[in-house]
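Bug: C-alpha cell stream looks shifted between consecutive jobs. Job 1:
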Amino acid sequence: MKIYVFKRLLLLIPLLLGITLLTFSLTNALPGDPALSLVGERAQPEVIEKIRKELGSDKNIIVQYAGYLRLLLKGELGRSYYTNRKVFDDIVIKFPNTIKLALGAILIAVPIGLLLGFISAYKRNTYIDRLISSLSITGLSLPVFWSGLLIMLLLSLKLKLFPPSGTGDLRFLVMPALTLSLPAIATLARVTRTSVIEIFDMPFINTARAKGLPVMKINFVHVFKNALIPLVTVIGLDFGSYLNGAVLTETIFGWDGIGRFTMEGIIKRDYPVIMGCIMVGTVVFVLINLVMDIVYHYIDPRVRLHDSDR
C-alpha cells in the first residue's frame, strides 16, 4: 500500500504539469485584456502598455508560461492583478469556508440519500419506490441556481429562519449546504437503490436467509457492506467536486469560498487567481481519489487480493 500511494503521488507531477499547460493556454485564449480591465478602455495607450509590462502580458506566451513554472517551483501561485495579494494567501483564507460548505452538504446528502435508496430498494415496484425515483429525477433535473433561489425565498424571505447571504456561523451555512446537497441526495438514492437490489438477488444473500440469520444482520453486515463500493465512489467524487468550489452555490449565497473566488477571477480576467484555484483544485481531486482507493482496499477483499497479486 505504501508503494502504491508513493506511485500515485509521483504521478501527480506530470498531471500538474499537463494541467498547467492546458489551463495556461486556455486562460490566455480568453477574450479580453487584463490591462484594459484594470484601467479601463479610455485610459491612455501609454498607461495600458505600462500595465501590460508590469503584468508581463506583453511577453510571448511561452515566456509567460516558463515564468509561471518558475513561480510554482518556488511554491508560489503568483499575485492577484487587482489586489496584488499572493493568490496562495487568499486561497488559504477562503478554502476553509469551502471545506465547511462541502462537509455540510455531505452530512446532509449521505444519510438522506442512503435512507431513500434503501427504502426504495426494499419497496421496489411499489408506489413508494416510484415516488422516491420521481423525487430523485426531479432533484437531478433542477438547476442549482433555481433551487438555491427557491430555498432562499422560502427559508429566508418567507419564514425568516436564516440570513439570505453571507459567510458566518451555522445559520449562514444551512441554505447553501442544503442547495448543494440536493443533486447528491438524488444521485446517492438512485445508486443505492440499484446496488442494494443487485445484492438482494445474489446467491449468498439467499443462503444467509436460509440459515436463519436475523434480517438486521443480513441488511447491515452483508447487504450494506457489499453496496459500499459504488457509494464510496459517488460520495468521494461529490466531496471532491465540492472542495473544488461550488461556483453557483457560493455565488448565489455570497459564500466566501474557492468557487466564488474563481468566478471573480474569471470575470476580472485575473489569470493568477484562475490558475491558482485550478491548481489547488487538481491537487485536492487527486488526493480525494487516492483516499477513495485506500478505502476500497479496506472494505473490499477483492481489491486486497488484486494488490497482493501485483
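Job 2, same session, no restart:
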Amino acid sequence: MPLSDLELYLGKLLASVIPPVTLSVLAIGIFYLGIQLILGYSMSAFTLFLVMALSALGALVMVSGAVVVSSHTSSIRGANLLASFIILPMTFIISAESWCILHGYIDILWMIMLAMLVVSIIFIRMGIRIFNREEILSREGEEINLPAIARALLRFAQRLPRQETALEKVTSPPLTLWRLYRHDIPQLLAINRVPIFLVLLAMPVGTLLGYWFSYRYPFPLAAEVLGRSLGQWKTLNTIPAITIGWLLFHNLRASLLASALSAFSFGTAAILWIMLPTTMAGFLAGEAAQAGYSAWVFLATFVLPHGIFELAAAGLVAAFGLRLGMIIMAPPKGMSIAQSMAMAAVDLVKIMALAVPLFVMAAWVEISVTPQIAMLVYGGR
C-alpha cells in the first residue's frame, strides 16, 4: 500500500477515537437536556465542558494506549487479552471522576484532566515511534507459550543485566550471591536510571501534595489532637501488635502487590504506592505545623530515622515495578512482549535481594529507634 506507517497509525487512531467521542458527547448532551427538562436541574456550562473534555481525553488515552498495545500482537484475541492493561486502570479513573463530579471537587478534576492529557501525548508519541507494519505481520500466528516463557525466565536469570537484550548466545558467570551483589545489582541500577529518577521525583511531590492537602482539607480538631499527643508523648506506649516481623511482612506484601498491579496499570500502581506514604507524611507534617510544631522537625523525628532505609527499598521496588509496567509499551528491539516482561520480572526479583535487607533494617529502626528519638524530641514538651 502507498501509505507510510505514520499514516496507518494516525488513521487507526482517528478511526477508533472519533466514533466513541462523538457518541459520548451526544449522550452527555441528551442526559443534560433530560435532567434539565425532567428534574429542573441546571448544570453550569463550565462543568458541562469539563465533563465532555474528560470523556474525550479518556477515550483518547484508552485508544492511544490500546493502539500501542495492539501493535505488539497480530491477532484479535491477543489484542483483546492485552486490552485489560488499559481497561482496568481507566475503570478506576472514571470512578474517581464520577465521585469528584458528585461531590464538587472541580480542582481535582482539572488535575485528572491534565494527567490524562500528558499520558495521551506520551502514548501517541510512543505509538508513532514503535508502529511498524512489517514487524506486526512477521508476528502472525504468535501465541503465548508457557514453556518458552519459563525458559526465558531461566535464561534471563543466568545472564548479566547488560547481556539480557543480546540476541546471540552469550556466556555469563554462574549466578551466585557474590555475582548478584558485585555485578547484577550495580548494572541494574545503572541501566534503570530513568525509572529510579521518576520514583525519586515522585517522593517529594507526594510530600508537598500531602502538605498542601493538610491546609486545603484540614481535619476538624486534627491539629489540636496531634499537639496534645505530642505533648504527652512520654505517656504513650508502642502498640504491642506491631513487631519487626509484622512490619517486614507488611512492606514486602505491599511492594509485591504494587509490582503485580503495575503490570496492569503501566506502572501507575508503583508510582501511587510510593507516593502514598510520602503524601501521608506530608499531611501529618502540615497538621503538626498548624499545631505550632516545626514540620521539618516532625519529619526528621518520625520519618527520617527508618525512612532512609524504607523509602530506599520501596523506591527500588517501585522503580522496577514501573519498568515492568512500561516495558509492555516499548519492548526492546527483537524481543516479544512475553520475553520483555520475563526480563523485567527477573530484574525485579534480583533487585529484591537489595530491597529485602533494607526493609529488615527499616522495620528494626522503626520499632527500636524511632520511638526513642520521638521521646527525646517531644517527651519534655
